[in-house]
Amino acid sequence: MDRRQSLEKYGLYDSRFEHDACGVGFVCDIKGSPSNNIIKQGIEVLNRLSHRGATGADPATGDGAGILIQMPHEFFVKVAKKEGIGLPAKNSYGTGLVFLPVNEKERVFCKSIFSRELKSAGLNLLGWRNVPVDNSDIGSAAKASQPSIEQPFISGSIGIDLERKLYILRKCIENSIRSSEIKQKQFFYITNLSSRTFSYKGLLMPQQVENFFLDLKNSALKSSLCLVHSRYSTNTFPTWDLAQPFRFLAHNGEINTLRGNINWIKAREGLFKSRALGENLKYTYPVISPGGSDSAAIDNAFELLVLAGRSMPEAMMMLIPPAWQQDNLMDKGIRDFYKYNACLSEAWDGPAAIAFTDGETIGAVLDRNGLRPARYIVTKDNFVVMASEVGVLDIKPKDIILSGRLLPGRMFYIDTKQGRIIEDAELKKNISSQKPYSKWIRQNLLEFDDLKTANSKSPSSKTPKLDSFSTLKAFGYTREDLKFIIKPMAESAQEPTGSMGNDTPHAVLSKKPQVLYNYFKQLFAQVTNPAIDPIREELVMSLDTYMGPEKNILEPGPEHAMRLRIKRPILTDEELAKLKSVKRHGFKTKTISTLFSVSEKNGFTKAIDRICAESVAAIKDGFTFIVLSDLGIDADNAALPGLLACGAVHHYLVKKSMRTQISIVIQTADAREVHHFALLFGFGAECINPYLAYESIKRLIEQVELKMDFKSAQKNYIKAAEKGILKILSKMGISTLQSYRGAQIFEALGLSDEVIKRCFTGTVSRIGGADFETIAKEAISMHQDALNRMKIEFPYLATGGAYQWKRDGEFHLWNPDSIAALQDAARNNDYKRYKEFAALINDQSNNPTTLRSLLKFKQTDSISIDEVEPASSITKRLATGAMSFGSISGGAHETLAIAMNRLKGRSNTGEGGEDPARFIPLPNGDSKRSAIKQVASGRFGVTTNYLVNADELQIKIAQGAKPGEGGQLPGHKVSVTIAKTRYTTPGVTLISPPPHHDIYSIEDLAQLIFDLKNTNPKARISVKLVSEIGVGTVAAGVAKGHADMILISGGDGGTGASPVSSIRHAGLPWELGLSEAHQTLVLNDLRSRVRLQTDGQMRTGRDIAIAALLGAEEFGFCTACLIVSGCVMLRHCHLNNCSVGVATQDKILESRFSGRPEYIVNYFNFVAQELREIMADLGVRKLDDMIGRTDLLEKNNSIVIPKFAKIDFSKILYKPESSQPVFCTQAQDRCIDDILDKKLIELTKGALENSKPVKISLEIKNINRATGAMLSGEICRNFGEGGLAEDTVYCKFKGTAGQSFGAWLAKGVTFCLEGMANDYVGKGLSGGKIIIYPDKKSGYQPDKNIIIGNTCFYGAINGQAYINGLAGERFCIRNSGLYAVVEGVGDHGCEYMTGGRVVVLCQTGRNFAAGMSGGIAYVYDKDKTFKGKCNLDMVELELLDKDDCETVKNMLTSHYKYTASKAAKGVLDNFKTEIKKFIKIMPIEYKRILDLTEVADG
Amino acid sequence: MGDPKGFLKVKRQAMQYRPVCERVKDYKEVIAPVWASHSKDQASRCMDCGTPFCHWGCPVGNYIPEWNDAVFTGKWQKAIDLLHAANNLPEITGRICPSLCEYACVLGINDDPVTIRENELAIIEHAFKAGFIKPRPPKIRTKKKVAVIGSGPAGLACADQLNKAGHNVIVFEKDDLPGGIMRYGIPDFKLKKSILDRRINIFKKEGMVFKLNSSVNIKPKGFDAIVLAGGCRVPRDLNIPGRDLKGIYFAMDYLTQSNMRVRGEKIADKDLIDAKSKSVVVIGGGDTGSDCVGTANRQGAKCVVQIELLPQPSTCRPPNMPWPKYPLLLKTSSSHEEGADRKWSVNTKEFAGENGRVRKLMCVSGDNEFEIGVDLVILAMGFLHPEKTGMIKELDIQLDNRGNIRTDDNYMTPQKGIFAAGDMRRGQSLIVWAISEGRCAAYCVDKYLMGSSGLPIL
């Protein structure tokens, strides 16, 4: 067993959570003439994308790279001949690379299987060729796993029939070898068996591909197209088989819904039939080969669809549809095509740029959100290059006829046979008119909303056996559920909000019986793919649900449309009755009771058996819908948890490949929160009827807690639930419920293997825990409480106590005793009292709450405390958490900064910027400057000056309380001071987007790290992640991206405001995440390059000790510091109502703040002292020597609670072997030593030293990234925020600029680029000026060709930009003050903008101005199509007034002056008439504020 | 929390007392009635804290923020349901509890705390007035028979809980009427006895049986469980010269007699303890002492002096008793307002008398020796432990080293089935603690009898 396998088996690493993000591209001769040059150019593209790939600890081992070309028939004829193999005619034989075991015996064995399967497939083996390779320059890790590579030649059929036979053959061989006993199974892999295409790939770096495969040096190797792929994997253990391209495609991105997609394909296998593939198809299952990556899986699915008869574009449209549901601008025929296909299959959802080819045609598609860049260039000589970046080939500007980009959901397709590019519209029109899809839908698809309401009685009108009050009790409803969950949802149609973190026990530790839902934590996207904003980008979201049995999707036909479409899958009682009454298309509903007898032995598990059996029987009896119902509990009959019933039946049917023949409706009393609904959908439910939640609404109305009618309250409740579900989907980056369904985006915390295997197959559960017996006990205990002791009639529900501390409620670590003790200790500098506090927290034997509470230190030889390193060196490792000025008061924020500076620790700005006045030390030597400056998604206040005034720059990817979510600071909280530090307008709402819009992938993160390092080379760069399964692999990716420190936050951390479900149910404890990250980094030999920090409900020295033993060298504290400063856990932060002045911006309340830096200093000294005592006990002198010493920890078996005995800590405590240091001992390679900015700085010496104007002229290429960032940092360091006078530094560039051109460009710098640029131009622009126009020699039209990439001017603070060409998606996103002119923009232009002015001279994409709360945009709407593309939620469209006209005129005059824009000239020439065609996009709130200010000024 | 900003808008306004000149003339309650609108305003100050320290500070764990909200929104039924969920005798604690909750109120950190006790009183009185409080006998009776000895706050709370759980509860009381200290220790002007009767009548209608005047002679065999809740009545004595002079009485004797007289009972002259036209010295600065002061003034004392051994407590929270602790503060009760000369740090040296009657009390305060002329001395220096004779002896109950009944964590004495609660178990304490004890003991008894208990427990 190698290190990877042992980590996977004994540690926390799970290879299923590997991610990759990559460079993908192709070159192609449109006319289809093969040449060796195409291959050469393909390889060149690959090399030029190498900064998008990554290397691990071994710098010579890449994550994988490869190319896919047309079958080089002539070449193979030649080389095969040498081996004595005579090849038949083109297209009548197939071949491909086969990776074989290096052990000869096993290799022979594999080849014998080949022969055997060939025979039974009726094919002939012409011979094997040893593929010549040279491994002299590949890395040691790659060498160690290098397979023996051979190439069989197979004949026996021709054309597509041969392709199909080869497919079946390959799958059969794979299955045989997988089930064999050979030891080197992992070596075996067949890249591709085809008569049409051929691939060369391996665990290589891009530049190694050419040297490794000697064939590639042969000029006889020819192709008319070449698809290339360079992989950047978070993967710690890259493998040969996961290199891309796969059989048909290469993928840059991430399939978020993978688990569900795999399950659904598995479920459909039972129905698959294909005339084309024949009877043997069944031997190829599973369709999705186990152990592959997400990209491999979609390749598997795509391959099946294509070989079964669909065209490539059609198959791709099926798997990765655009956001058609709400796109009213889409052609109806095409929409119907998508609608039809939605009946067949859920989408494979996630960021994706996929390039695919069958050797004859080649294409690329982008996901619905356009979350991956894809640029292409078409030249005069019929050559096309498409890649993640522009500039990957040197193409003469004069040859370019088109510079384009792939739009969200669109396809770029070249048919070399027809010798032309087929436009997206034409392609889709053709495909959608191949079959009468519209008619099929019209005639067959039932719309639930159009059906008549049933006459039959509603389900709950059946007289229940119990009164609703007892039922509420029996299902564990508490007063809190009603007050904090149901009521706000019903009242305002919003998900309830809360604040501070979660300090209650994990479900598996709680002494109170738990609903099963509480054992699950929501997973979320971090780094490897972005979360989505379900509010501002609603157009991509959908809850559409299709009910009714599926058919064989391999053969299209009208029968697939015989389904029922439900737009809102949370059903009212009436809707459920209506659903049951639907009889068309043979629909009929079977209700299966999920009750079990409390008195019967094993009644619980017997009931699970029964409902599974009844479900199968229902399918056999022709039922199409089953309702799993827990109606009718009584004294003897309790209900199975709804989630358990759902998961059990779903997985039972998936395993039997029967799942798609029936739809599951869950009618359950226990579901009441958003988290519950999400879980039910995530584990397969089609619809949910939460009847008891409705009943509780009725109760609230009766008690006058809700003053509204039931109908509206219920409607609100459902709406709130739907919004919440969309939010949960979107935090994983998933857009449609159809794709989310069954995708199991959860991690279980505290469930045993038996439960997972049976009901939640494939879900991660790393510490074991509750088994069926325990779950049954909990269910019965709630039931008994409500029913058997009814003699004691208390007219109220149980307290709850999860959201507020209550004496009879759930235990909280922050309770009155601990809060009071901590405050006393810190304020009176009383160590004895601190120890009392620490004892309350550390000894949880009576109320186990955290995982760490269940561990204890092993007995070791202790040493004298005097030998332990001093407290002063320990406090340097401490940091306070990221709490923005805004979320906490100025007083609190500054107190923390002063205290941490005194301790030489670090305080954190949070995401709200920092007043530059705080950068100057105080006369007494104190400093209010936060050492850590955070860079979060909103980029508020992230100026060049802010960046250069940091010791650490922290990229916040996620936050413990609400990972994967954005935030919003409502306008009324944006005071003058806050607006000033955030560079926005007082009173205008500030929205933080869920993702960083310049981080959609791990390679993007590497880019941002690079940008920040350039701007401030002295600061260390840290990345804040939140614990969840897979965080270890993400951490490895981040380490590869050259971050200096990685922070693993626990999911329990605090917040100023967040949905309560996120506080409690998203993210995992840091113990798991930290340990996983440490283990994975150690195993990858990456650990010594990065520091690890952890935070999330840290309180004591013991907490630190455990964290250190699990792998952290630094520690963050948040809530505890606030408590020391006076916080008493009111949990009112979101109300701006903190009575102790900590978390408020209210002036009166702020004056009540009573914290002092001394208190915090006292506290941290106590913490350090306590830690030192523990270190002395453990015999450890230096903290570094503790790191990763899990051998000093063991489970504390003296704690006796029933569920605890079943918890297994071995994975957390696994200590991987390592020959290298297991803490940070070396600095990251900063990769900024020979960059273009060094030259710029040299050339601008005059300006930097004495403000003298300088003019420079330089060439630029795509590998020159973040140009200008380092120069700007220098300027800010020398001249402060004011920078230099306009145009002092004038740089003229020519060529194609790499990413982040002009990032954080400082005041006084002008960048003028003749050519093109990639993504992120001018991010964080802080006063500089950027001018970009096409190469003067190029002939293309600026208004039709793309010139800059996606997400340009993100978070720009100030400055000017003139872009003579089209920009990609998200132009000027979160612009604070930039004045920009651009010819045209893609989707989501001006999103989240808060200030500045933007003029767009021709088209915009969809969703313009979404979330735009400030600034003004002017769009030249010549063809009057703008309105349909604008998101009008926050803006109004107006005519321009006199001032506006003046502004536009000035901006256009400059634009013309700088870029010679014809469009600008056109307007200026006829200004009076043309200006009337402009539309002013005015944020409503901004307008109100401006009006107010005017009144005040006037 | 109806109005999240309520605490910034409304100032604390404590309950009004009747004017001193009026109230000293009678034994009617000193408090003035509370108006619902006033309570509503005051309740709006509650912040519904995420960590309600009031609820923590309250020995019975009253759901204070929840019922404050109900008061604010006028949901009186809900308010009383929640109040009763934690407290069997809110009309008592609403009048005389020293309000540990208010000292723990978060608003009290930097503002005046919420008027929690008064809101409690408003709820219960409103509930009685509105007829919400009706006898609700348990629907199902167990066959278990439980004896509760003592009908003070611990005994009544315990009996009420056990009765709700369906057990057959018999309360034994040695006095002629139930209520214990509430009836005989606390003067009418602080707690009128009809309030007590009102509650006891409900208990009776709910099936609780009272055996009065019962010198306890229980045969444990007749009961499935016995709860001893007889209080802690042995007073601390002052053993200084002259103690045997006439005119020196224990506070409890004085108050009990006064309460009986107010009730209309005739006391034989020889037994009469009356302050009329007398110089009265109350020794002991606690609540009982304060009640003696009020009583003496109402009886027409010439002057009342109250002396305390300890120094005068601070009027604001001392640093060694930070929030949310219950601090030792100078309390000026309604009785003090009515006239008393309070002396602190006073050590009593000797009583001197004439004709066997006390006339002078010699004291020392620091270096200063002085004497006080006195006709009546009331000793209100607290209680030591329960009576060791009688029941405790008969049942052979084990005591702890403080002289209180020893129990395990489940309130059970080493004798199976015999439990103890209240002052008898924990020593002299507050009524609200006694209620808490009674409730906890009831839970333990129920669990002991039935194997599990559905009674609430904090």
From TrEMBL, chain A:
Catalytic activity, EC: 1.4.1.13
Catalysed conversion reaction: 2 L-glutamate + NADP(+) = L-glutamine + 2-oxoglutarate + NADPH + H(+)
Coiled coil segments of this chain: none
Cofactor: [3Fe-4S] cluster; FMN; FAD
Pfam families, per database record: GATase_2, Glu_syn_central, Glu_synthase, GXGXG
Top EC group: oxidoreductase
Residues annotated as domain Glutamine amidotransferase type-2: 22-417
Keyword line: 3Fe-4S, Amino-acid biosynthesis, FAD, Flavoprotein, FMN, Glutamate biosynthesis, Glutamine amidotransferase, Iron, Iron-sulfur, Metal-binding, Oxidoreductase
Pathway: Amino-acid biosynthesis; L-glutamate biosynthesis via GLT pathway; L-glutamate from 2-oxoglutarate and L-glutamine (NADP(+) route): step 1/1
Family matches, as InterPro entries: Aldolase_TIM, ET-N_metabolism_enzyme, GATase_2_dom, Glu_synth_asu_C, Glu_synth_asu_C_sf, Glu_synth_centr_N, Glu_synthdom, Ntn_hydrolases_N
Entry superkingdom: Bacteria
Any one Gene Ontology BP term: glutamate biosynthetic process
A GO term, aspect molecular function: metal ion binding
Family: Belongs to the glutamate synthase family.
Protein name: Glutamate synthase [NADPH] large chain
Organism annotation: Candidatus Taenaricola geysiri
